[in-house]
Structures
1.
Amino acid sequence: MGLTGIQIFKMLPQTNCKECGAATCLAFAMNLAAGKAELDSCPYVSDEAREKLSEASAPPIRPVKIGKGVRERTVGGETVEYRHEKTFFNQPAFAALVNADIAEDELKKKLAVFNAFQFDRVGFNLRPEFLAVKDVNQDATAFAKTAKLIAETSEFNLILMSQDKAVMEAGIEASKFKRPLIYAATKDTVDDYGQLAKDKELPLAVKGESVDEVMELSEKLTGMGAKDLILDTGAREIKQCFEDQVGMRRAALRAKNKSVGFPTIAFPCEMASNLDMEGLIGGMLVAKYGSILVFSDFTSELLFPLLLERLNIYTDPQRPMTVTEGIYEIGKPDENSPIMVTTNFALTYFIVAGEIEASKVPTWLLIKDAEGLSVLTAWAAGKFAGDDVGMFIKKCGITDKVKNQEVIIPGYAAAIVGEIEEELPDWKVTVGPREAAHIPAFLKAR
């Protein structure tokens, strides 16, 4: 970052107003130095200090915001090469290619299918974000019509792909309220597209035929005042694309090379002859280090594994994945169905829920917040103590749903039976299996 927390603190107003969310200006300065806060959170920093601090605190890879609405996406902004060093912040975005000459009825059907691709996982709603409208015959009217229909009738944001300035302007005018990405400024169009992006205040993709050419173009565009850039080295062969992605990330982080310090866009759709292979390439690029990935189509078979990979890689490795505390219905439980309780560690939840589903026994599953720890670890750390579990059962609302007053606790937490019984004197506490694999037999035998 270049500045320590103390150096930053000296440039802050030092009012301790707490409006930034930190208790003191010193705490805010330390958070800023650690990359855990944004300078815009301080409403009173002077313009002079803001200029100095913005430059000093800027991540080596510029964050770029694309789109508007619920699927708006910020890409880039990364500060490390490997997630275990700290964490990755901004998940890559997925896009599907749509030709501008597509028939309106066919496009509406495609949008209906695409909009349905939403998967709930660990409390997150996973879905793709972009559609890339490709100009195929320099028809400005068709390009604008397709962009307008997507922008107005779906949640998807847009990537506008054309090398014809007039066609691009028509597409921008039809969808500008969605803040589309302009693709792409090349050595032949850099002046026109750079000015267009600057005038319309839109993000701009830069396409070269090599990393060196991309660097030249990005330097020229930043000199023109176009700051929100997305880089495409033009590589459409897997090995070269991989090398370019890794090389640019290393140059930005290790050598502080600002000409490659931007998010990237890659095209698995132009690197494979079938969607299965596109998915394999996409999986590689999610890990190494694609910011926007464009596929020829969306299917559940393509998206689901990529969305899960993206979620896993871009989850902070220093914080366990959790599910929300509460009551989960497995099957269609009634007032006499069994009640089980466990911790909110995501892996624990999915394993236990899966085994309950396999048993075919409708069950109430109570998930208690244990700070994302597994049962045994949570019990050892005092996060799954009997009195806390008993109090949770009282307050979670399960008593309004059931006549049954028996709770089944994990076998590894057998030691808390007495404490729960003290908290719930009218309840029966049963110790369940230690291993989740034994849950189906346990439930069926009841």
2.
Amino acid sequence: MMTVGSVGYLGSTPATSVFGLASVFLYVVPALVFLVPVSLVAAELASGWQGGVYNWVREGISAPMGLLAIWCEFSQTIFYYPALLGYVGSTLAYAIDQRLASNGVYTAAMIIVLFWGSVLVASRGTSLAAKLSSSGTVIGTLIPGAVLVILGVIFLAQGNQSAAPMDVHRVLPPWHGFASIVLVVNSFFTYAGVEVTAVHVDELRDPGREYPRAIFLAMALVLLVFIFPTLAIAWAIPEPHISLTAGVMQTFNLLFTHFGVSFLVPIIAIALAVGALAGMLAWLDGPSEGLLRIGREQGYLPPYFQTVNGEGIEVRILSTQAVVITVIALLYAFIPTISRAYWIFTALATQVYLIMYVLMFIAAQRLRHTQPDHPRGYRARKLGLLCLVGGLSSVSAFVMGFVPPSQLGHQSPVLYAGLILAGLLIIGLIPPLLMDRLGKPSWRTVEEQPTHR
């Protein structure tokens, strides 16, 4: 259940629903070639080396590559949060005025207000954020997802025609060139973050037997949670009209209106927003805390950014992140369509995160050869195959991320790829390079913690 709770949210379903029945394929394949390898490989690393992805990659490759990995884990949230909060803003528009869902200025304002508000909540300590996160997942993800599917099934059972064809010829995505399948990258990002539960592998009675079973059970549950709400959107909304940010609320609005309960639209909008914000609160402190710890131990961060408040929260890192996100949020006011902005930010977050996963797979394989006798609470079977499949799938998704998806309309491939590359360099690659070159031993404020168990 921790694994299920650590990945995805209903806001990611509209991007895949444009494929109709083929969305099932686009969930199952990344689950097999990405979710399973990431989970099992991370479990072995977590059971042998403490300290998370930085120490895994540092031990397996090098310290600079470890810094790159932890930075990618942190910096992908700079793109992820605007995309997530863009979805929240579009969702809340249905509780205020539906026309605002496609208004870039409104969306930019909501991103800025909600993120700074979340930073304020996070600065009060992890206990408050944890309470809000756990309850919000049930209220804003599990319950609305079940309601959406039930209404969709009843809608079809009444004899209404599905907006997307559901015949067997639609099982595979249509092929109209490479760009027609690029939205599969969104499915990879749905599963990103699953490695965070690997740190608990040592708490199991029999990790070698129980953890793989837990992962495959979690994979089945994750597929159920995401496949059926995705199909419900495809049943109700024609593909050209699906908004990548407001698609869930479009479907609820149509179905509630159809069943004569449209007064529930604002209520479900608020519930969905709560669920998405709960997921963000669960993530907000983690990556920044990891960056703080490494910055203190290795001298990568100036003392100014190592300051914490009375609750032990790295408020200066979070505030700086909020400033950057504020600037990025303003792009929503200038990019022609909200869906296009959402996709660009999701693609950038995915690109940055995939770099970390590639480094993790390489480190795991090298550690199995360079430190074969190092104690591990869990040893993944066929580790080489898992690393090969996970690494190749990550690289493939990374390459596809530079191609504009055909579902977003005609765009210049060169301009789109240039935009993705610029964001990748400015946010994902240049900062860790500068931190490695400019870091000073005098910036170390704590002793390095042991990395072995």
3.
Amino acid sequence: MKLGVNIDHIAVLREARGVNNPNLIYALSICEKAGAEQITIHLREDRRHIQDKDVQDIINHSVLPVNLECAIDPKIIDIVCSLKPHRATLVPEKREEVTTEGGLLLDTTNKKLVEAVEKLKQNEIEVSLFIEPTQKDVDTAKCFFNVDWIELHTGKYSNLYSMLYSNLAHSNHSIKELELDRKSLKQMLDKELKNLISMSDLAKELKLKVAAGHGLNYQNVKDIAKIETIEELNIGQSIIARSIFTGLEKAIIDMRELID
């Protein structure tokens, strides 16, 4: 199973002070040396972390393939097509959200989405759709949009795991709708894991390549890594957070070992 390292949060730290430190380019060789197989970045419409120049510099200098997450806004798609990353992963965006929450709404009548997929294909860029793990979305991704990849949103699984097995429920970031008894949380977690397995298996049957990501960390990744039909995990925040204490190379090696 491949590991894509999302380095957005290095840019978050840089933008917090408005200086060019830390420099994202320094991370590229470290990721490759530590065993990552892909660099993932997200060019958001509001440019809150990754900037246009970052994307160009990373694509030009990364030995590893670059997976560029982006919204379906035509101006963003034009930028993606001009820079030609290895893959573009289409995701939903809301200005008020802290990070991407939920999968892309696969509305077959959405002209912007249809045109975005087609334009990326015309420019020979692999297309992935970041979707909820539902049969409808998996079927639509293949049968209507005919994309190369899907990335299953693991946010629900990750939230349930954290509320059950970490101190999240005792923090300021407790998820109110999941403040339930442990038995209920365990049942919900088991159900969501089974669902991720089923949807990944379905996607594989439809000849889709399957990635997964969102909220995966050093505690919850092992059960996801056991799903044989998932080919790739994209993980960012937990790796960058650990790197503050261990260094980036060690943080990636630790994650790579858990996945293996």
